[in-house]
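Hello Y.,

Per our agreement to keep a running log of every chain we model this quarter, I'm adding this entry. I've kept the format consistent with earlier entries: sequence first, then predicted structure.
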Amino acid sequence: FFFQAEDGIRDDLVTGVQTCALPICPLSPSGFLIAIDPLLHAASATGLGWRLPATSPMHGVSTAVRADAAQDRQADSDPASAFVDDLNILTIGPRAICEALLLMRLVELWEEWSGVRVNFGKSTCTAIDYATGNPVDTSAITYRGRPLPLLLPSSPFRYLGVLLTMTLNYRYEKDRVMEAMKERVETLAQAQNFTVAQRELLLRLAVVSVFRYSAGIVPWTLPELEDVTRLWVRGYRAAWNLPQGTEASLFRLGRKAGGRGCPSAFGLCTTERSEEHTSELQSPDHLVCRLLLEKK
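Predicted structure for the entry above:
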């Protein structure tokens, strides 16, 4: 059951509902946090939904993984999480649909207590059976008597700014990143009111950062990474008002070697993945960590 996020465990069902809750008062975000916190604790106290497996998907890959920490939380239930005004609820296993119904009822009771209302128009529900790869019927999961809007497991959803699918298809995120970077490179190429140094800085801040944000979890291939670097080189050429046929090494070489120090997509991706593996992917609460556990 998924309130914006989703997950799964091998051979079992996974459901998710994505929703956007409206704050109590636009001038008091702290009030909203105070109101939603009891819901998260209540969901955890039910013992339903996501339960931490004993083995991390990174176990055996990184010596920094603490398997004992995972085992310490074996009894914990953590089906609900929130980010700003988005609420995520996840259930896993053969009873995923039944548990989703119970947690949905908990949300309704919380609404009556807090005065907060779920934005039904921005709510979605999705479910998948990883044993077969087929969608699971979610028509029984309702919100105030209404079936939740259905999102196919192969359709993308945005989680913390990254486009993901229940099937771990990252093509949507890759396309989004490439389109956003191309648009910004073209815009900067026409920004003649900036100096060369300013345009180079803008390339790093407004273009490279788009790729870097999700580079740690998106499985880019080597040819795709080379395409990304070529796009950045194109932006450097435009920053210098040089023809696109200008030798790329002038920009790809480091400044100490006489170049302009255009970043390498492969190098950035390697760095981000290394940092991700030693930090967030070791956290069992990380969405991608949960999906990896299911696909393992």
